[in-house]
Amino acid sequence: MKIRPLPIVLTAVITAALLVGGWFLYRNEADLKPLDRIATSTPGVIDAKPVIGRSSVTLDLTLNRDANLRNVYDTIATEGDDIIGSKELKLNITESEASGKLEDVWASMLFEVAQAMDHRSYADIPKAMQEAQSKYPGIQASSEMDDTNVYITLKDDKAVKYVVLPRASNTIGVWPNA
Predict the structure, then answer these.
(1) Region 100-166: CATH code
(2) Has the keyword Transmembrane helix been applied to this entry (predicted)?
(3) Domain 5-94 has CATH 3.30.300.30
(4) Pairing of strands 56-63, 45-52
(5) Domains of the chain by residue range
(6) What is the phi/psi pair of residue 32, to 5°?
(7) What does each of the 178 residues of the chain score in pLDDT, given as a tens digit?
């Protein structure tokens, strides 16, 4: 019996294309689209782009000015629990308008916030927010916390800066999303 290589190669290529195509279609229809629908229907979310990795689910979000970051995280984590499962949920917030003033405020309070996070003295974070508001007129600073993250919102008359800090501090010592 003579083995012909062309039919074998064609069969392997077609099988691989069907398997990869089926996996891609399943991933889009069963995971990404429902998670995108959950995120975009969450109050305060303008746009969302989910990325599902092996150990984490990352959502690139664009939020409106009045979004409550803790509620956004909680809604997505609760309603998307079937998709997220045991993976870590990470939010990357895209700022629609960059503000140098808000970046300066964040930089000035970063040491106090980092120290509070490292020492797990979370009650010091609202104090840092109040100090920032008194030191920089026209800035609204607020913080909230749940069992997984600390959420910080800085606002001025034109822009908003959202920061999500995981309560389990990173070993590097810097937050990648700050």
Answers:
(1) 3.30.1300
(2) yes
(3) yes
(4) antiparallel
(5) 5-94, 100-166
(6) -70, -45
(7) 788 889 899 999 999 999 988 888 887 777 789 999 999 999 999 999 999 888 999 999 999 989 999 999 999 999 999 999 999 999 999 876 777 889 999 999 999 999 999 999 999 999 999 999 999 999 999 999 999 999 999 999 889 999 999 987 445 556 666 6
